Amino acid sequence: MSVTQPARKPRGRQFFANPGPTNIPDSVLLATAHQTVDFNDPNFIEVYDACVAGLKRVLKTTQGLFLYTGSGHAAWEASLVNLLSPGDRILILESGYFSISWANMAKDLGIEVQSVAADWRRGVDMAAVRAALAADTAHGIKALCVVHNETATGMMIPIPEVRAALDATGHPALLLADTISSLGSLDFRMDEWGVDACVGGSQKGLMLPTGMSFTGVSAKAMEAHKTSRLPKHYFNWTNMLARPHRSFVGTVPVSFFYGLQQSLRLIEQEEGLENVFARHTRLGRAVRAAVQHWSGNDGPQLFCLNPGRYSDSVTAILMPEGLNADALRSVALQRFNLSLGGGLGPLGGKVFRIGHLGDLNEPMILGTLATVELAMKVAGVPHAPGGVAAAIDALA
């Protein structure tokens, strides 16, 4: 009589290559395990104020900042309800799953949404953006929303070009930017680029657990807030300004700030913010070199076809026709303990994603790429072997 053996769990530490949440450094994990303290204690206030100042440095802003207990979606909603009124119209630049999600949230809140459609593999045409703005002679568009780095498609949208489109047409719309998968990984300059509200989250480039988000807010946006009429309470910036922390209507998540204090130390002091950007550029280039090599023999290929918009924090990889990306991800996870990101929305089963942001270095990326190549071989996915060597050449 045969006995069915349970599935073998791979040994060793999991290689985690999802684009968010991301790997958390041990020192940050230990810092978040801080004992509970009173969030009004003067000693904690010092930590809190230092973290707010550090976040502003990463955002490259001297303007306002509001924080929330909630994921990046919470900051999306906070930005919309604090700046707009029922029936207001916004312009959203299509870039992938998350731009569509932001648009759907706005519709649910009673906001009229106008989109600039785009090929998800190439990105929005800035001429079409200028045309949409120029056509709005009555300035009915109150805000323009753009996802700086579209996690679903591995595409970066250059915000200075969006700002230039607004300026060239003389359009007064607020510029809202989602930096969730770019902040702390790609260069972002809120004040220099004229961004009025930027949305960020804890779980990606800041290398923290999921659950805290924030919005950087310009003086122009604060003026718009004074007349906004969408319902809000927990997210109400006016309510927050009346509190000692000028954020959080309710309990402050103190443990996040001890972790954030450590994360900012790693980013600013141990490595340096510009060096962080350079590291992400190196790792992104290596991943793309591997994928471009694998594309031989009718293998997987880069989803993004616009080299000027490649993301340095996540790469989306399109499977050969007729092959399922989730089946490959399952082999990678179940056989080799490598966790890869899946396709989102209409890209489900067609795309897998490699996150290369946050707490990562060259050996971790090379190990990930080697295991992806191994999983492709086991799963029978056609590809040109040698992608890891191409990545090494890119890194060297």
Secondary structure elements and their pairing?
Layout: E1 15-17, H1 26-32, H2 42-59, E2 64-69, H3 72-83, E3 89-93, H4 97-108, E4 112-116, H5 126-135, E5 141-147, E6 149-150, E7 155-156, H6 159-169, E8 174-178, E9 197-201, E10 212-217, H7 219-225, H8 237-241, H9 254-271, H10 273-294, E11 301-302, E12 314-318, H11 325-336, E13 338-342, E14 351-355, H12 362-379, H13 387-395
Parallel strand pairs: 1-13, 3-4, 3-5, 5-8, 8-9
Antiparallel strand pairs: 2-10, 6-7, 9-10, 11-12, 12-14, 13-14
Structural class: alpha/beta
Strand order of the largest sheet: 2-10-9-8-5-3-4
For the record, the CATH class of the largest domain is Alpha Beta
**Overall mean pLDDT:** 96
- Specify the number of helices: 13
Overall tally of domains? 2
Classify the fold: give the CATH topology of the largest domain: Aspartate Aminotransferase, domain 2
At the fourth CATH level, what is the homologous superfamily of the largest domain?
Type I PLP-dependent aspartate aminotransferase-like (Major domain)
